[in-house]
């Protein structure tokens, strides 16, 4: 009986971890889409955005890919660079 409880708990924890990872991926995709939308609305190219941010174009492409896990400081830099904050 105890073994069954441990297995059930382990499966639950694993499923919960997968759910959290999935949520994190969705957040990253949504943030990337929001940044792309602002760039499009303001007619700013990726190269121009890279210059504004003082970053290499490859870094900007990672941000816009939806796979980058944004830190709070990076998000703050982006909002400052785009004049949102």
What is the succession of H and E elements? HHHH
Q: Strand content of the residues, in percent?
A: under 5%
Number of helices: 4
Q: How many beta strands in the DSSP annotation?
A: 0
Shape: elongated
Number of domains: 1
Oligomerization: single chain
**CATH superfamily heading:** lambda repressor-like DNA-binding domains
Taking the sheet with the most strands, its summary is:
none
Radius of gyration: 19 Å
* Unreliable sequence segments: none
Return the CATH architecture.
Answer: Orthogonal Bundle
CATH class: Mainly Alpha
Q: What class, by secondary structure content?
A: mainly alpha
Cα-to-Cα separation, first versus last residue: 56 Å
Global mean pLDDT: 86
Describe this structure in words.
There is one protein chain. With 85 residues, the protein is mainly α. The protein has a single domain (2-81), classed as lambda repressor-like DNA-binding domains (434 Repressor (Amino-terminal Domain)). Helix content is 79%, strand content 0%. It has helices at residues 2-41, 46-53, 57-65, 72-81. The longest helix has 40 residues, at 2-41.
